[in-house]
Design brief:
The chain is of the alpha/beta class. It has 32 helices and 17 strands. Among the domains are: 90 residues, no CATH class; 176 residues, Rossmann fold (3-Layer(aba) Sandwich), CATH 3.40.50; 183 residues, Glycogen Phosphorylase B (Rossmann fold, 3-Layer(aba) Sandwich).
Length: 697
């Protein structure tokens, strides 16, 4: 018996050597062909043939060599394998042909076509089973396997065939993809159906047939009875689409399937298992690609569906809490200052004025806790799986450890103010607050994340939002915020020192449009490029100054794709002097002296600090009607004066041309903007809101 092993990459040597030893015990000759590191192959294994295929194109004519360069790597590998005469000779004599890795699947499939009597399979374990069956004389003819005829052995054979069918060349062909997608819908065991679908979905994505992959996963999931199998099939396809930077139609269906399996495990009192699948479901539903790293999100338009997703799940509802507090909030003891604990998790950007104000207030004793400075607390906050396990009735050590870390702070404080409704909020609300009052501030991005769904709001007394439109979205999408144990909600502007921005403008400021912050997809600087092009069609004196660093392209494929598009389109504008990139700076007021118009091109904001700072500097605001909230009850036009807000780049250009028509007009608008900003958002105006919120004064 001859077994031909095809490898596209150097395999695990220990596994390969054990496989060869097992095959030799079956009196088989094992031939290794493909691309691998020759020194890794030990001659003492007794391989019949070790054939390393040339990958420099030397065995191809010049036309084939040129075509190979343009091929997908798996097709290119076949071009080299199929041109190797020694490999073809071994193929004709082979009884079993096995593809070890994904790169080799297509080549093994092609080789099997050249020798129809050979048994084709994928993976060393499958090859070992097949070789055993061949030796024992019980292996069915390959033709029967390929047609799927027969009995209980069908599932294994069909699974092996599916691995070979899951290659990009076959699936890149429309007819081939249609044929392959029918296979997992044939009668078979659920495990085989899941294995087959996993490989088929992988191949369809590799062939850039994403919608077909997602449709296949949905069709197969509808035929699966087992909740775990259904969740795996949908999650595999959904996460692949997200990893490639797009939001799939299966987003909510996948999360729902994960939560359904979590509910089953929760009912079986498997807290750890339920925690794993709640984690899967929330990670999918609130994946950053779906909500953060693109210019659209399904959440604003489908908020109620996201609310029902978690409300309908017994496990997710148990995680969200409703545990309440053991004791009511107590007033401070007479004769001593109010004790205020301010908590954050590595981001204190909006806490400077608050800390300074209360540190200098004799009626307040302030402590500041950044959990990143305390590794034990940080590990607890970041270990989402353990937190979920504890919330579902397991992992008592998590609760004990959290209690040990946080109790001294909670017993000391009269009021705990947690900035950002994220990991710190989820951790603190896992512990009974005692008599301390708990206040949490939710800015913007958290509403699009899983963290509010992990926060026990029955232990939050007051929830602070920075704008009405964010509160609207949170109330629509987080079930715990509208229940009987929901916290009081407030709108309080970020505390900002805006008086320091009122500096004299430089001479060319009237024709300079400025943006502060372009480091996130949500800022949508591409929209701003459209505005500056519109302006320069009318007057080439206009230019755009962009202040801020680049996006983090490692965050996701979606963010990386956006940054590539932006770099490609901004480069010629920089070259012609239409755009100036200033990068990150610590001197925003100084840079704003050059800016006569402050632009917000964002798709979403909580309260756009850059606009408020620009307005305070005397720059005239032009604010895009943020698409995430356009048409809602609240949005940019209710946070800012309506005349500041525009819908399109063309409307933005028209407003800029109107407010900068002449020096006097521009200066007048600038003075009005400065006056409005200082009267609305400056710290002396806002600090009273915090005093009332914390019960101080």
């Amino acid at each position: 018996m001859d077994v031909l092993v095809v490898v596209g990459r150097t395999p695990n040597i220990d596994i390969l050597s054990a496989f060869v030893a097992e095959l030799k015990e079956l009196d088989a000759r094992v031939h290794l062909v493909g691309t691998f590191s020759e020194p890794a192959i030990d001659p003492e294994w007794g391989l019949g043939t070790v054939r390393r295929v040339a990958t420099d194109g030397a065995n191809l004519d010049w036309r084939a060599r040129a075509r190979a360069v343009e091929m997908h790597p798996h097709e290119r590998f076949w071009a080299y394998v199929g041109a190797d005469q020694e490999v073809l000779r071994l193929t004709k004599a082979a009884d079993v042909i096995v593809a070890v890795d994904t790169k080799a699947y297509y080549s093994a499939w092609e080789l099997a076509r050249l020798n129809p009597r050979a048994h084709a399979c994928a993976g060393l374990a499958a090859a070992q089973r097949k070789a055993q069956a061949v030796r024992d004389g019980v292996a069915r003819p390959p033709s029967a396997e390929q047609t799927g005829e027969g009995d209980s052995g069908q599932e294994e054979r069909t699974s092996d065939i599916a691995l070979l069918l899951g290659n990009e060349k076959l699936l890149g062909n429309k007819a081939g993809a249609v044929l392959a997608r029918r296979v997992p819908l044939l009668p078979m065991r659920e495990k085989t159906r899941v294995d087959m679908t996993r490989n088929l979905v992988t191949g369809l994505f590799a062939a850039k047939r994403n919608q077909a992959a997602l449709a296949t996963a949905s069709s197969v999931a509808g035929r699966l009875r087992d909740t775990e199998a259904r969740s795996e099939v949908l999650r595999n396809a959904t996460r692949r689409a997200l990893a490639q930077g797009s939001t799939p139609d299966t987003l909510l269906a996948s999360a729902e399937a994960d939560l359904a399996h979590a509910d089953r495990l929760f009912a079986e009192q498997d807290a750890a298992g339920a925690a794993e699948f709640v984690n899967h479901g929330l990670q999918t539903a609130f994946h950053r690609v779906a909500h953060i790293d693109q210019r659209m999100s399904p959440l604003p338009k489908r908020a109620e569906e996201f609310a029902r997703l978690t409300a309908a799940s017994t496990a997710a509802s148990a995680v969200a809490g409703g545990r309440g507090r053991a004791h009511p909030v107590a007033e401070p003891e007479p004769g001593r200052p109010r004790r205020l604990l301010v908590v954050t998790d590595g981001n204190d950007n909006f806490l400077g004025l608050i800390r300074n104000h209360y540190e200098s207030n004799p009626d307040v004793e302030l402590r500041f806790l950044d959990i990143t400075d305390y590794p034990g607390i940080k590990r607890l906050a970041g270990n989402r799986r353990r937190l979920l396990d504890y919330r579902l009735g397991g992992d008592p050590m998590y609760g004990f450890t959290a209690e040990q870390h946080l109790r001294p702070y909670l017993d000391w404080a009269d009021t705990v103010f947690i900035d950002w409704c994220a990991a710190a909020a989820a951790l603190f609300t896992s512990v009974d607050p005692g008599t301390a009052r708990v206040v949490v501030r939710l800015h913007s991005y958290e509403a699009f994340s899983h963290w509010p769904r992990l926060t026990d709001f029955s232990r939050v007394d007051d929830l602070v939002f920075v704008a009405d439109h964010i509160r609207d979205l949170a109330l629509r999408s987080v079930p715990a915020l509208t229940g009987p144990q929901a916290p009081r909600t407030h709108i309080v502007d970020n505390g900002m020192d805006l008086a320091g921005f009122a500096l004299p403008k430089n001479p060319d400021a009237r024709f300079t449009v400025g943006m502060v912050g372009i480091g996130q997809v949500a800022k949508d600087p591409l929209w701003a490029l459209r505005v500056i092009r519109e302006l320069r069609r009318c007057d080439e004196r206009y230019r755009l100054v962009m202040i801020g660093g680049d996006m983090n392209t490692k965050a996701s494929q979606a963010a990386a794709a956006y940054q590539r598009s932006f770099q490609r389109k901004v480069a010629p504008l920089v070259k012609e002097g239409a755009v100036e990139r200033r990068g990150a700076t610590t001197d925003v007021p100084g840079n704003l002296r050059d800016v006569g118009v402050i632009l917000s091109s964002s798709v979403r904001e909580g309260c756009h600090v850059g606009v408020m700072e620009g307005a305070a500097s005397g720059a005239v605001p032009v604010v895009r009607d943020w698409p995430f909230f356009a048409g809602q009850k609240h949005g940019a036009s209710t946070l800012y004066p309506a005349e500041w807000v525009v819908a399109t780049p063309e409307a933005a250009a028209d407003r800029i041309l109107a407010v900068t028509a002449d020096e006097e007009t521009w200066a007048g608008h600038g003075r009005e903007s400065e006056k409005y900003a200082l009267a609305s958002w400056d710290w002396p105006v806002v600090r009273g809101e915090f005093d009332r919120l914390f019960g101080i004064g």
